[in-house]
Amino acid sequence: MSSKSFVLLRKLLKVHSISSCRLFSSSAVYRASKRHYDLLVVGGGAGGMSVAATKFKGISSVGLMDGAQKHYYQPLWTLVGAGVKEFAETERRMKDIIPPGVDWIPDAAETFDPEKCIVKTAKGAAIGYKYLVIATGMQLDYNKVDGLVNALENSPKVCSNYSPVYVHKTFPCIENFKEGNAIFTFPNSPVKCAGAPQKIMYLTEWQFKKMGKREKASFKFFSPLPVIFACKKYAQTLDKICADRNLRCYFKRNLIKVDSDKNMATFQNIDDPKDVKSHEYEMLHVSPPMGPVNVMMNAGTLVNKAGFLTVNKETLQHTRYPNIFGIGDCTDVPTSKTAAAAAAQAGHLRKNLSAMIEGKPLGSLYDGYTSCPLTTGYEEVVMAEFDFELQPKETFPFDQSVPRKSMYLIKKDWLPKIYWDKMLKNGSFSPVYPNPWSADQRRFAEILRIMESEGFDFKWEDHSKEVFASIRKIRSDHAFADVTLHSGGRNFVAHKVLLAASSRFFEDLLAGLPANKCNVLVLTDVRPEILRALLDFIYEGESSVGNNLLEDFLTAAKKLQIRGLHSFDARKSRKRKTSGHLRGSTQENDDDEVVSPGRETAENTPVNSTNASESNKPKSMVLGPSVSPTTEEIDTESCVQVKVETGEGKEFDDASAEWVEEETCADGEYCEEGNEQEEYIVDLENSDMKIPPEVSRKFVSSVPRTMPSICRESNFDISVPSHHSTCAEFYLSFRTVLNTVMEGLPFIEGRSSSGEDVLPRL
Ligand SMILES: Cc1cc2nc3c(=O)[nH]c(=O)nc-3n(C[C@H](O)[C@H](O)[C@H](O)COP(=O)(O)OP(=O)(O)OC[C@H]3O[C@@H](n4cnc5c(N)ncnc54)[C@H](O)[C@@H]3O)c2cc1C
Q1: Above 80 in pLDDT, residue 251?
Q2: Which end of the chain has less Cβ packing within 10 Å, N or C?
Q3: Residues with CB under 6 A from ligand 1
Q4: What CATH number labels 139-290?
C-alpha cells in the first residue's frame, strides 16, 4: 500500500488508536438527563462490556461510559495482519453491542472522584454511581519511539498489528517484501497479549514460504525481556521453533528509533544503554510501548505510580475504595494482559460484586488465569494457558505446548464467536474448565481430536446387518433385478452387483457383458436346486443343503468361485504378470496362479472329486447375441444370453500349451445355424514374440473385457475398453495380431461372429 493511499484509508476509516480517538455522538441510547447509576462501568471494551452485560441482583440501573464509536475484537488483528482474516470481522458499532437495559454514555471519563462517587466526562457531565467498575484498557504510545509515527504514517515497510489503522499495513508489507531483514519488536513496557509481537513473525514466515521468498528473508525478533515467553512450558516450544526455522532472537534489546528514510531500526541494550545498534529492515513490525490511558495516569489514589488501577489481585476489588472494582488491562493485576484474562476475571468480579451488594464477604478468588493462543504458523497454535505462578492451567486434555490445528481453529473461528455471542452478551463465559472432565467436556475433547485430523470418519455400526436386511427385502420383492440365471428350465432373477461381489467367476463374466441390457446367464451344469441354494447363500450368508445335494453344492460353489465357500484369492492372482511372452498354460498350481473365469485349478478341484482330470478342463463361455435359450420365459429380444458351462465344452492341452476350441455348438441347444465358432490354435510357448508398441496398442484397444487368462498373463499393459465384449472377438483379434507379428503377414481385417470389425486396418 502506498503512503498516499494509506493516508486516504486513514481518513476514510476516521479512526485512530483506541484511546486517542473519541468521536462523540448524540446517541439515542444515552439519556443525557440521567446523572446517577447503581452501577457505572467506565470502558466498553472486552472487560467492561462483559461486566455491563451481567445481571446483578439489587442493581436497577447500569451505565456504560465509552466515547469510542467502535468496539474491536483485538485478538483477531494478528490474523488480519497475516492476511488470514478480514478486518471487518473484528469490529462492531458500539451502539449495536450495548447490552439491553444498559445506558450507553458516549463520552470519555476525564476525572474520577472516588470520595464523592462521581466521574466527570470530557463533555463536562458528572455521573454519579453506587458501584463503579473501571475497564479502560491500555493506550498505545507509538510516539515513545523516535520516528515511529512518521514511519507508520509514511513508510510502506513499517506496520503494526496493534492499531486498527496500522494493522491494514501489515499484509501489504508481507506481500511487498523483496529481500532483506524482516524485523519484529516487543515493547519495553507492559503489553497486551505478550504473544502477539512474535505471533506475526511466525505467520509472516509462513506467508513468505508460501510466496516463495523465505530464502530471501532474515528474520529478527527483538525483545527487552530475557526470554521469548514468560511461561517456561511454552517458551521451550517457541525456542525450538525459532531455532529450527532460523528466526534469530535478540533479547534485552529495546527499539528506540526508526529511520524510515534509511529503513533503519535502532535498538538499545537494556543492560548496557550505551550499546546501541541499528539494523536495516525491509519489513518492520512494531509492537508499540503501551500504558494506562491518560485519565488513569491522573487518577490519584485510584492508581499506582505507573497509572494502573490498584485492586486486590484475587477479588478485583479496589484496594482503597470497596465500591470500586477493576477488570482487564487497566488494572495492576500481575498477570499477562489478555481478553482471556478479562473473561476469567469477569466471572469472579460478578460474584464478588454480587456478594458486596448483598453485604456478604467476597469469596471468589481469581488465580491469574490468562491465555495466549500463539499462532506458530499457518493452521497451528500453541494454546498457552497459565496462572499467576506461571503454571500451566490447561483446558484441553492434551499437551497444549504442541502446536495444533484444533487450537488454531479455536483461535480463528471459535473464540471470536464465543467473544461476540457469549462474553459480550451475558458476561458469563469463563474459559476455564474444571477437572475432572464431565461427559460434555469429554465429548468436546473428542470434537477437538477430530479437528486435529485431516478428515472425518463416519461409521455405520450395524452396516452389514442393516444392508443385508434391505437386500433380503429387495430380493423378495424382485426389485432392481438386472440379471437372470437360467438353470434346468428355471429362471432366477438376481442382482449383478451381488453376484460379482460374491463370486470372482461372476465378477469377471459380468464385467464383459453390455451394461445396458438385460442379461441371461444359462448355467448348463448347475442344477436348479443347487443354484437356488447358492443364491440363498449369496443373499443370506447361509444356506441349508441336504446331504444328498452336498457334494454337488460344494462342487458348484467351487466352480463358480463363491466367496465364503471357496478359498480362491482373487486379488492376489490378479496381480500376476509374466515377462517377455504370452504363455499358453495357466495351469500351474503355485500361489500366484492366474485363473480365467470358470477355469479350474488343481487347488480348486473338489477334494472328493471323482474325476480329477475334469477339473483341469477350462470352462468355456460361449457368448453371442443370437444364442437362443431353451425356455420361453427368457426374452430373446432384449436379453443378451450367455451360456455358462462350468466344466464342459473346451479342452485344454497342458503339455503342448495349446488352447483348443471345441465345437461349442455340438449339442445344438444354444447355437443357431451359421454361428459356429471358428477353431483356433494359439501356440505361444516357445515364441520369442516381440510385439511392437503400436500393434500392442491396437491389440489392447480391441481386446474384450472378458478375455481369458492368457491375456492377463501377458506382458501387455492391458486396459481394455468394453466395446468388444465377446471372447470370440478376442480370439479373432488375438490371432490377427499373431499373424501380423509372428508370420510377418500384413494385418487382416478381423470380424466377429456378429460381423463387427474387431481390428481396424493398420
Ligand atoms: C494485536 C493484538 C492481539 C491480541 N491477541 C490476543 C489474544 O490472542 N488473546 C487474548 O485473549 N487477548 C489478546 N489481545 C489482548 C486483548 O485484546 C486485550 O487484553 C483486551 O481487549 C483487554 O480488554 P480491556 O477491556 O481491558 O481493554 P480494551 O478491550 O482495550 O477496552 C478498553 C475500552 O476502554 C475505553 N476507554 C479508554 N479510555 C476511556 C475513558 N477515558 N473513558 C471511557 N472509556 C475509555 C476504550 O475506548 C475501550 O473501548 C490482543 C491485543 C492485540 C492488540
Answers
A1: yes
A2: C
A3: 18-19, 42-48, 65-68, 74-75, 77-78, 108-109, 135-137, 161-162, 192-193, 196, 293, 295, 328-330, 337-340, 342, 371-373
A4: 3.50.50.60
